[in-house]
């Protein structure tokens, strides 16, 4: 005899079926999860499912659905915010959502009116090179006001490395707007990222103007998506391969994620860069990227720098200067994923990563990785995401991978709008490019872009931020950062006072000690070969006298060609 019991707990509808199993359906970011457990108390009443981690821990057998799960019209639709906390949808949003009892066929509407949040049903399949190019062209041509399709170079075998830009003003950098990139399929046989990025392209473009969230993301971010960095390797890989290396390398036999210049070691794998590597390096320096992710497969974890250490020892935690920032970034991807925070291992011998994240070297040390290179040689912060346990899963699994990763892909992109941002300006409000932005206590600087705009990812806290630019007096401000939207802080810089070497007669120099002193120039100053007409008085060794020391300013400067 069947027993039906309905309870609303936070963001869940709980049913007990005729076998007396606990079945919990939860709508998380537009995805329905069903969890089965033989123990109703453990599954529901004891834990209450206030956290996704507790839910997955006590009800491990998960069946994913692509529709909302509100089996009674009397129950309020539930949504979740970026942190996974349950919130009731606003009244204006509720009108978009209709449900009927699952037993009589469920119909549902989310922000986007069709299945899985797409306006038109996506085609879940693997796109080989010609199909991939055709897919990208089709969407670029359909949305010319939002896209720009371009190539950054060619693979060893001459295949284009295609990128699609998505922005409300494509083809140009908008002052103050951060730039973001996703890179997929760096290892040719790790294919999930390749297909997820094609689906993301469709999702963003079809959602523009319909979903407030997606519209705002596109309007405020210049997004660059490269579905495959290794098209040659993909063509050699075999569908259904869970492990293995066939297709991993490029056509020259190089592992592209060992081929970047390394901060510690040079070897035969990264001494000479491959065409794909060189193309990505040039691309990464051609745009003011702020945030990036490199999508892999074969494990389930978000990996962050450093990927190696001077000892070349795996299992040794190797923090970069922005370790706290990278932990936050990695968690922004892992937290919405149903299986990453519970640290579900890929197999009985697999590693379980706490919170679904890991420091790269602590997992295993590698040289020549792309994420470390980004951090060292550009403004861009990059993590490496292992999207699933199978490197090349069968086609039928692609819908599940999309449902598991969709919210994570979006939540990670949102992080580009955190930390601090603003402009570095001169006294005439002109932007100053290449100004150096440093954070006291963090040994990693970024520089301003062509318009003087800058972005610096940070965790919440209070910071002393200093901006320096050649020919200008440095400026320091104390800034309070939150975990939410980026704090806007502009810096206006004054030009340094120049000491004209051609000045004759007596010159007055102001000292920090107070009164003015008279300096008599030597008769042969104009003939001094060490002081040229383009020389300027600049701080010695990049330092400045400390305020209140009483030292003469001129003694802390030297002439130097600029």
From TrEMBL:
This is Metallocarboxypeptidase. Residues 125-416 form the Peptidase M14 domain. Gene3D superfamilies: Carboxypeptidase-like, regulatory domain, Zn peptidases. Belongs to the peptidase M14 family. Keywords: Carboxypeptidase, Glycoprotein, Hydrolase, Metal-binding, Protease, Signal, Zinc. The active site is at residue 386. GO terms for biological process: peptide metabolic process; protein processing. Its cofactor is Zn(2+). Residues 495-562 are annotated as: Disordered. GO terms for molecular function: metallocarboxypeptidase activity; zinc ion binding. Residues 501-514 have a biased composition (Polar residues). Residues 1-18 form the signal peptide. It comes from the Eukaryota. Transmembrane segments: none annotated. InterPro entries: CarboxyPept-like_regulatory, CARBOXYPEPT_ZN_1, CARBOXYPEPT_ZN_2, Peptidase_M14, Peptidase_M14_domain. Pfam families: CarboxypepD_reg (PF13620), Peptidase_M14 (PF00246). GO terms for cellular component: extracellular space.
């Amino acid at each position: 005899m069947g027993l039906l019991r309905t309870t609303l707990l936070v963001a869940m509808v709980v049913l007990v079926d005729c076998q007396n199993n606990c079945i919990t359906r939860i709508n998380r970011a537009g995805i329905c999860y069903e969890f089965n457990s033989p123990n109703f108390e453990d599954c529901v009443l004891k834990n209450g499912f206030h956290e996704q981690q507790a839910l997955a821990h006590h009800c491990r057998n998960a069946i994913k659905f692509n529709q909302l799960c509100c089996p009674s019209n009397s129950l309020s639709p539930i949504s979740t915010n970026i942190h996974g906390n349950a919130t009731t949808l606003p009244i204006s949003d509720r009108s978009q959502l209709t449900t009927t009892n699952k037993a009589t066929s469920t119909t549902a509407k989310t922000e986007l009116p069709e299945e899985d949040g797409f306006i038109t049903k996506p085609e879940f399949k693997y796109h080989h090179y010609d199909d991939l190019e055709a897919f990208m062209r089709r969407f670029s041509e359909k949305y010319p006001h939002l896209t720009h399709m371009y190539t950054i170079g060619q693979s060893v075998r001459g295949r284009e490395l295609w990128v699609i830009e998505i922005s409300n003003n494509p083809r140009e950098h908008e002052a103050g707007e951060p730039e973001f990139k996703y890179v997929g399929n760096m290892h040719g046989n790790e294919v999930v990222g390749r297909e997820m990025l094609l689906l993301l392209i469709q999702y963003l473009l079809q959602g523009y103007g319909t979903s407030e969230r997606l519209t705002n993301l596109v309007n405020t971010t210049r997004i660059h998506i490269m579905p495959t960095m290794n098209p040659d390797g993909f063509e050699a890989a075999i569908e259904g391969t869970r492990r293995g290396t066939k297709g991993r390398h490029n056509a020259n036999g190089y592992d592209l994620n060992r081929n970047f210049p390394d901060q510690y070691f040079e070897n035969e794998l990264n001494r000479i860069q491959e065409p794909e590597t060189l193309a990505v390096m040039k691309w990464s320096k051609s745009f003011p990227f702020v945030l990036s992710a490199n999508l892999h497969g074969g494990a389930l974890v978000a990996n962050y720098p450093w990927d190696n250490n001077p000892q070349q020892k795996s299992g040794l935690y190797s923090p970069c200067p922005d370790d706290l920032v990278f932990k936050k970034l990695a968690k922004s991807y892992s937290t919405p994923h149903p299986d990453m925070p519970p640290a579900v291992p890929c197999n009985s011998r697999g590693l379980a990563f706490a919170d679904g994240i890991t420091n790269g070297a602590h997992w295993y040390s590698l040289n020549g990785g792309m994420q470390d290179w980004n951090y060292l040689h550009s403004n861009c912060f990059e993590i490496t995401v292992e999207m699933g346990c199978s490197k090349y899963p069968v086609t039928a699994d692609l819908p599940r991978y999309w449902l598991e990763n969709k919210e994570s892909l979006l939540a990670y992109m949102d992080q580009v709008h955190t930390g601090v941002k603003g402009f570095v300006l001169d006294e005439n409000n002109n932007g100053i490019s290449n100004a150096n932005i440093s954070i006291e206590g963090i040994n990693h600087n970024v520089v301003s872009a062509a318009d003087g705009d800058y972005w610096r990812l940070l965790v919440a806290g209070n910071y002393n931020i200093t901006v320096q630019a050649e020919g200008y007096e440095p400026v320091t401000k104390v800034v309070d950062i939150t975990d939410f939207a980026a704090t806007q802080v502009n810096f206006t810089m004054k030009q340094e006072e120049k000491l004209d070497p051609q000045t004759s007669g007596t010159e007055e120099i102001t000292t920090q000690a107070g009164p003015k002193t008279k300096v008599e120039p030597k008769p042969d100053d104009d003939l001094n070969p060490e002081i040229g007409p383009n020389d300027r008085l600049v701080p010695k060794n990049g330092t400045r006298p400390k305020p209140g020391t009483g030292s003469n300013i001129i003694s802390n400067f030297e002439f130097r060609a600029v």
